[in-house]
Amino acid sequence: MMGMSRAGLAERWPLFVGAFLSVTLGVALVQSSLLLLISAATFDPPAGLSAAERMEFTDSTAAVVSMLGIVLGIATFLAGFIISSTFAFTVAQRRRDLALLRLVGAGRGQVRRLLLGEALLLGALGAAAGVPLGLVVMSAQTWMLRRMRFVPENFTGEWQDWILAVSFGTGIVLAVAGAMVAARRAARVRPLEALRETGDAARVMTVTRWLSGLIFFGGALALIIVAPHGGAAGGPAMAMNVPLPAAIAAAALSPLVVPLLGRLLPTGSGVAGVLARANLWDARRRSASVAAPLIVLIALVVGTAGAGASFTAAGIDQMRSQTHADLVVETTGPAGPAIAAVPGVASASTETSLPATFTTGHGEDAETETGTAVVVDPAAYAAAHSTGPLTALHGRTAAVGPGGDVPSHGTVKIQLPGLDLGEVPVVASVPAAMSGGDNALLPPGLVPAALLAKADTLSFVTLRPGTDQAAARAALAHLGTVSTTDEWLKADAKVRASTNDKIMLVIMGLGGLYALIGVINSIVIGAAARRREFAEARITGLTRRQVIRSALLESSAVTAAGILLGGVAAAGALLAALTSTAAVTGHGTLSIPWPLTLAICAVALLVTSATSLITSWSATRHAPITLLAARE
Amino acid sequence: MTRADAAVTLSGVSRVYGRGGAAVRAVDDVTVAFPRGGWTAVMGPSGSGKSTLLHCAAGLERVDSGQVLLGDTDLTRARDGELTALRRTRIGFVFQSFNLIGSLTAAQNVALPLRLAGRRPRGSEVRETLAAVGLADRARHRPRELSGGQQQRVAIARAMVTRPDVLFADEPTGALDSSAARVVLDLLRHMADAGQSIVMVSHDPVAAARADSVVFLRDGRVVDHLAGANAHEVADRLATWEAAR
Ligand SMILES: Nc1ncnc2c1ncn2[C@@H]1O[C@H](COP(=O)(O)OP(=O)(O)OP(=O)(O)O)[C@@H](O)[C@H]1O
Ligand SMILES: [Mg+2]
């Protein structure tokens, strides 16, 4: 049996190379993301930091860890999706071979064992190559993280011995799981039907497909419905997760849609068009397998980036509409009295930000978060940020800041650099901001002036009507950096948008590349089984050109369908973004990253066209008769 | 003929494809017995249900009603595992398009059923079977390196290596020229003379005339029998039934 398996390996090599590659790349990506996550979570602050610097370090580490958590989540999702669908596809592509085996006496168990044995072998081999490749991927990811200043220069990903078990486990489990469903099905269908591709063997929309399609559709729908009720933090988290189940649902149900698109092929495209249309219908399984990674790619990149950009834009809009001031002064240490003394200044909200840790609960249940606390003048703050009165905020109290993460009642233990404030009652809260911000507001007098003297401070200055802004600005310039509120908001928005872009690049850069390779993979696998079909077409009288043209038309139609379905899944995320920004800020914000969307569609079209051109060209290299002579 | 003399017995077998208006009665209430140790040819116009009948008789196709007995074994009630076991031991099947596995050599193709049955085939066993079909010197060739007639003989060797009770062949000479066909027919004749039960579908009167008896099928029904006829007589009878359409 194994000898046969080896012979099979030699003959159908593109299938096996494709399956192997999907495992190698998936394992490398998961391993690298996991090692980086562990390395970041256990990264020690360099020696000789001040208390404030140490808290800031912890805060930024927490942010990097949560970002790498998402990176790992997406890597695992992609690996699971692409590996299992590739293996399922390779099994489906060999249904004829398997039917022949069954006809000469192979039992169902034997077919299943053969396929699972193959998956086990390929999973293990793929993982063996994936482990060293993972180290390469890790250095690439580390370089990217360093370059974007998410981690300090001395950060490195650390190797862990146990990762070997994880990587091999990932490769083998995903490969076997992917082959399992397809192997059961391949073993179950009647051999004669499999040989002739009729009856059960020809059914594409299997029960499993319907079920997974509908279940994940339901999951995506639930996220879309619940997202607007998730608040400033939960809404984005849910909306950004919509693309995953939506993509699975779209991929599972794609055999219903892809052939329909074939009807839209221009009817003037002659015999190649007729053939392409017929193939789209007849080879729904193959079309669906090519479209699947494409759907995931588009859904993930466009959906996540679009939702991310929408939330960033909403945060910027919200900030703009809530900030009421003429000028913004950036100083080191509170400069309230000095600013108030400048002629023409009506009022100023001076806000001094300090790193802080917040602990809630006691003993076992204690939970500590790192963030920032800001010392404010409650009345001026309320006026400058239209938050509603903060009269309760005085003495030993705190209020929940726009960044949240602090309980809105009861007490919270607050620790500032070198100062333990102990249990502080939370007496008020300001509305959560879409873009985050300080976690807690502290009244003046609670924090000693010495601690504030070196802290970054923002002052939102309102001038008296009729004041000469230029003169006031010149006077304030002696105290710190002055900008108009508009300028300041614009600069702040730019920083936020670019941070968002960088995060998206880290999260999806390599994942997107993997999905794209998955697309190439499935085209190559699909073409491997088509030599005979191409040869038959040429024997019938089609020229080699016409055959290639027809393959190209077909792949363009499949790509278009993939883009369309991926777009639908991405639209789910955008819809969730729209409704949840509306729920938080009062009006829905949608920011679609058109250049990215168009670029990714163009790349997808280019890659699929090039791949099917090359594969169909190489599959038609030999005279057709040499292929048809052997009647396998 | 009593049941004990029959290698395969079909009683009231029907097979319908599709449903409602599009339903095709490919095999319609057929009762027929294929004798043990004899060679029976099944003839009929294209689309008359010959292949379907053969598939049903070999347990490859589910029947909608009726019963198929292989010796005493009821194929219609057999579960998949039992049918698989039968394919390894008691049923041999040869297709018009040889259906060899392209990546395996002739010898490996022939050894396959034995391997699948969990046996480690003796080299001599495979060699003898290949020698019996006249291909002792082609054992290491792959199907694409063999002529059509040679490929079909490998397929027959593969079907025969398990020494089946019945050899089913669906137009085994359909893809061959007349001289290659004659080699295959001589081979089958030789096997039948040695006591092998053979059921063969063919539309070629020359091929059918080599069999011991001929069954004629039209529109899924058995319409005629002939025994010991020559090619002319078979051709005349076939023409009669084709003209009656
Ligand atoms: N899987 C199928 N689904 C639907 N109809 C089928 C199927 N297989 C066969 N048929 C129909 O059943 C009838 C009998 O087919 P069958 O293949 O048995 O004919 P045949 O006598 O072998 O013809 P030929 O000499 O052309 O091989 C035909 O009308 C055919 O269209
Ligand atoms: Mg037939």
Automatic annotation (TrEMBL), chain B:
Superkingdom of the organism of origin: Bacteria
SUPFAM superfamilies: P-loop containing nucleoside triphosphate hydrolases
Keywords from the UniProt entry: ATP-binding, Nucleotide-binding, Transport
Residue ranges of domain ABC transporter in the record: 8-244
InterPro entries named among the record's database cross-references: AAA+_ATPase, ABC_transporter-like_ATP-bd, ABC_transporter-like_CS, ABC_transpr_LolD-like, MacB-like_ATP-bd, P-loop_NTPase
Record has Nucleotide-binding as a keyword: yes
Gene3D superfamilies (UniProt xref): P-loop containing nucleotide triphosphate hydrolases
GO molecular function, one term: ATP binding
CDD domains, sorted: ABC_MJ0796_LolCDE_FtsE
Protein name: ABC transporter ATP-binding protein
Organism listed in the record: Paractinoplanes globisporus
